Amino acid sequence: MSQITARLPDDLVASLDKAAARLRRTRADVVRQAVEYYLDDFEDLAAAIHVLQDPADATLDWETVRNELLNQN
Question: Which residues make Cβ contacts (< 8 Å) with residue 23, sequence separation at least 6?
């Protein structure tokens, strides 16, 4: 396992220490899990952006779609 060093503002370290104490975990455990969650979210967002930027997808006009949806019985 690799070790990294990061500089954090004092108030963030204080919040980290409080969270670690409440969770009965070490600072490293809390930071590791936070980074894992962030990277999972980042990958999901990157995949969504990639899909949304697909030039093969048709562009729909909002007014047309709205009118079609509202006029359905």
Answer: 29, 30
Domain tally, the chain: 1
Q: Is residue 1 part of a domain?
A: no
Domain range spanning residue 50? Answer: 10-70
Sequential pLDDT tens for the chain (73 residues): 899 999 999 999 999 999 999 999 999 999 999 999 999 999 999 988 888 888 887 888 899 899 999 988 6
Q: Does the pTM exceed 0.90?
A: no
